[in-house]
């Protein structure tokens, strides 16, 4: 299916979710997206300022907890709208705001986050070391390739959260590596379609920026339903 068709399905699904429900979750997702930016601004503004080591450690802990909260809220949003899509199309219970995320969800998401963070950090460090040893022109090319690589990896990992939720709900025992592999397999041959779909929301994100994030209360549910739809279509090999 083309991006236009996926978006149309997402809009139809969104119409069937009560506004007070999807807008509340949309607000949480907007907050989750804002948290990292706010944290970065606060930490940057305090960099270089001499502070007590205890307060410094407390600040680091607070930043870490806020980042974790943002990740959990985002993952919860993915799962929330995927379950709503499933309810609309196949029937079943209406998901609550927290979606029933269990300790297994959180543990697997934490492991997944660590794996991705460490892997990306290693890639960035290696590229950084190489760049420091080559001419400027080559450095620019390497930076472009790095960006392309990171985007490609992000697209291949699009479905990991959904796979984790499916495994927890069905009681399937798989390692997080296997769940990452499942997402990798589902996105095989679909990377370009996913990229086009995500880019098709670019205009909406620009408008959201002009509204200081207010439009995101509607956009985030719309976007999440679209991605959830591609996941279902990919499982059925229709996307």
Characterise the protein shown here:
The chain is mostly helical and 239 residues long. The protein has one domain (3-235). 79% of the residues lie in helices and 0% in strands. The chain contains ten helices and no strands. The protein has helices at 3-15, 19-46, 53-90, 103-131, 136-156, 160-170, 176-186, 191-199, 202-210, 216-235. α2 crosses α10 (216-235). It is globular.
Tally of domains: 1
Distance between the termini: 5 Å
Number of discrete helical segments: 10
Judged by helices, strands and strand pairing, the structural class is mainly alpha
Counting DSSP E segments of at least 2 residues, the number of strands comes to: 0
Point out poorly predicted stretches: none
Average pLDDT? 85
Shape: globular
Largest sheet: none
Could you spell the SSE succession in H and E letters?
A: HHHHHHHHHH
What is Rg? Answer: 19 Å
Strand percentage, roughly? under 5%
Specify the helix fraction band.
over 70%
């Amino acid at each position: 299916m083309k991006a236009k068709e996926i978006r149309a399905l997402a809009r139809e699904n969104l119409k069937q979710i009560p506004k007070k429900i999807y807008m509340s979750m949309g607000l949480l997702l907007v907050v989750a997206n804002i948290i990292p930016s706010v944290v970065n601004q606060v930490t940057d503004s305090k960099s270089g300022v001499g502070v007590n080591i205890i307060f410094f450690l407390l600040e680091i802990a607070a930043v870490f907890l806020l980042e974790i909260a943002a990740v959990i809220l985002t993952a919860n949003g993915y799962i929330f709208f995927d379950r709503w899509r499933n309810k609309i199309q196949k029937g079943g219970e209406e998901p609550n705001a927290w979606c029933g995320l269990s300790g297994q969800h959180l543990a697997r998401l934490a492991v997944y986050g660590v794996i991705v963070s460490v892997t990306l950090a290693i890639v960035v460090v290696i590229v950084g070391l190489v760049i420091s040893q080559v001419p400027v022109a080559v450095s620019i090319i390497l930076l472009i390739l790095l960006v392309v690589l990171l985007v490609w990896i992000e697209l291949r990992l699009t479905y990991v959260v959904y796979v984790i939720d499916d495994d927890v709900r069905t009681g399937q025992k798989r390692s997080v590596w296997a769940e990452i592999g499942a997402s990798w397999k589902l996105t095989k041959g679909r990377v370009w379609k996913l990229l086009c779909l995500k880019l098709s929301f670019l205009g909406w994100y620009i408008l959201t920026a002009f509204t200081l994030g207010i439009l995101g209360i509607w956009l985030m549910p719309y976007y999440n339903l679209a991605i959830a739809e591609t996941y279902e279509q990919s499982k059925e090999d229709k996307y």
